[in-house]
Input
Amino acid sequence: MIFVGERINGGFKDIQKAIKEKDKSIIGRWAKIQTEAGADYLDVNMGALSNKLDDFVWMIETVQEVVSTPISIDSNKLSFIEKAIKLCHKSPLINSTTADKEKLDEIIPLAVESNASLIGLCMDKKGAPRDANKRVELGATLFSEAIEKGLPEDKLFLDPITMPLKFLQEQASSVLEAIRQFTLLSSPPPHIIIGLSNISSQTKEEELINRIFLVMCIEAGLDAAICDVTDEELVNSAITCELILNKQIYSDSFIKAYKESRKK
Amino acid sequence: MIFVGERINGGFKDIQKAIKEKDKSIIGRWAKIQTEAGADYLDVNMGALSNKLDDFVWMIETVQEVVSTPISIDSNKLSFIEKAIKLCHKSPLINSTTADKEKLDEIIPLAVESNASLIGLCMDKKGAPRDANKRVELGATLFSEAIEKGLPEDKLFLDPITMPLKFLQEQASSVLEAIRQFTLLSSPPPHIIIGLSNISSQTKEEELINRIFLVMCIEAGLDAAICDVTDEELVNSAITCELILNKQIYSDSFIKAYKESRKK
Output
């Protein structure tokens, strides 16, 4: 399982405050906590508060002063992504591109030449997908463009686009179906990722819904998630799911064994 | 989701004691607790302690004195099953038959004429299945025999046979694959059931493994389980899973709504 820590995001008030006041301690604290919890990447997102490249640079540099966990560059601006890639000490994850041809023509070569991984969102200019078929069609476009332009399949992360259960309940089944289809694209298939927390947006059982949906997605073929890596029950559920799928050899203390095996 | 309460089973020490001493209070207590927790059927199993028909009759009558929840007749002896069916106030679940032709020739007509449901185990004289293909082959045999002999598909429960993760780790994936295949047998498909607790046998994380495996199975197409219905986290996980699959309309208090809707 590839865990991307979601917490360094300007959508959270403490991160907003940190950016405004250039308070390194808040960013640094979340960088450490998420790394200790087992994050493979730390997502860095400015949110709507700022659109200054300097702020983004400051955030990434602050994270890298504290931990060596790779960065997930969360921006839709190509100029920001280009700058961020140059700052990254380790091979980053670009989060993200849509499936629009003109975007892919720019961003895939950038990922290839900088040895970065790339999240491809199954959406385009026409908006979010309404069913599994559209997700699969856009996923196939992302996959074929990536392969054609020289991005290895293990550097591509397909995101089927998760919608809030509260408002678009029937979309969850489409996401699961799309994940199953993505696993058939190639052998081994590309990585499959979701932004987990969206599923439980504005519900009263956020952790429960996140946890159950993550397990269902892993059963369907998912192998990566942008999520709250500090939610221990969530992480333990994912570990147990992978144990059941025979991706880790059973031992009585399999959770501890998994965590030990991933210490950096 | 169809929940079969597993607790009135001579494998548990308190039930052994109850049978030996003809202590109705212990059996009655578990009948009530499991019914209140939402069991659709109460499994009644003598375990290895006794092989007396009188004891089995006593157990079933004791349960029915306290609750009106239908009985899951858990015995592999045809004579016990025949007797138990006559005692049952409500249409019971016969637990179970193997896929052997001579057994099916006897037990399916019995289920048909008594309007009972029937669990068909995906195993035969040769033993337990070793892979998904064997499970699917035996499931198809059970399904076609049932249909041919007049048992409606909604009275048939296919059990792909769950093995302990600790000793046969690779079998869990075969169970999931078999469940997916069973959903393709007909539309609507037969019910699909597992004896859940077997998966976590002799592990140190029984509840966690049970919970995660149940969610994975439901994602794959399972709609019934013999399990610890008094494990609230387990039941809530299954409810959440069915919500995500759009089998219940979302509301902020969806767990409460589900439980209310099932009160007898």
